[in-house]
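A quick aside before the break. I want you to see a complete sequence-to-structure record at least once, exactly as it would be stored in a machine-readable document. Don't worry about memorizing anything.
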Amino acid sequence: MNPKELFRIKEELDFLRRTRLEFEKAIQFIDAKVKPVEKGVVKLLEQPFRQLTVKFPVLLDNGELSLFTGYRVQHNRLYEPTKGGVRYDPAVDLDVITALAFDMTLKCLVADLPYGGSKGGVCCDPKKMSQAELDRLTRRYTYEIMPILGPDSDVPAPDIGTDDREM
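That is the input. The structure line, written in tokens, reads:
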């Protein structure tokens, strides 16, 4: 595949870009069919409130120290706490987590829930990790993002690659 074709495919798969485009379309629809949306509200919703990127070591069962990258994005804090899942997946990156936090904000607004949207994740393959490695990964990731977590500020939940054990 040539570089131009790869770029086109990446553009089609760019979740954050697509999310922002859909948001713009929704704002245009609301402006035209319902009532004008305040530009300040649009600006507030276009960008996340906070994006935290953490890099941390985890000791693997074979004795090697491996470096992982984790994220927690709090998209909007108009309502607190924010809430959103924690994903363990090899495709996790800041753009994906930002788009998912944006989606969570919109879901809460549409459902009239008093929460802001957030999302977190670690770039890893949980299917290739032992339970002990996942326990160490979870503890260290949580330690790194702990300053922004809490029942009144940000409440994590399970998502792809995580369940009640990690929570």
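Two observations worth writing down. The first helix runs from residue 3 to 13. The beta strands are 50-59, 65-74, 82-89, 116-123, 154-158. We'll return to this after the break.
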